[in-house]
Amino acid sequence: MAIAIFDFDGTIISRDSLPDFLIQACGRKAFLLRLPWIILLKGAALTGILSTHRAKELVISSFLRGMKAEDFHQACLKYASRIPAFVYPAALKEIRRHQEEGNKIAIISASVPDWIRPWAQTIGIRLVEGTGLEIRGQILTGRFSTPNCKGSEKVRRLRQLYPDFASETLHVYGDSSGDKELLALADVPHYKPFNNK
To answer: How many CB atoms lie within 10 A of CB 123?
Structure first.
């Protein structure tokens, strides 16, 4: 028995799902109008003026704050239906291999799990961890309900899902600096395994 942990953006799919989702949910015009703000926040995060958590929260808040939970849910379902077009065929093949071998599989992503989970369930992946969005009174507040799921937070989620992971063979699939802590723990690390296949 083994455990296989997959990053999502850039690992299973060929793109960053966050801007893609925001464009679909709010429109290309709304995205372009906010692009200078996004670039400013990204620069602030890169220079350490803002934490990546706060910068990302402010970006998402500028699009989704005040959205009804049901509208968000429907937008997530709509986006998830598009995901198969972005999936690396080699990634899907590797997921199927782990399933055939009876291994435990989870996706741990920095993205919001609400738009990953509906797709993941269609291919038999039940466990999806990511950066949660806060909902109060059936309205999105624009704040996160969890820490930004990258770096050491990904390791914390792994320990939550599989407290005894050290007793099993751990495969980790990732493509960015946000995955390096998880990759360092892996018995079998896979860095950018599907991009050229």
So the answer is: 15
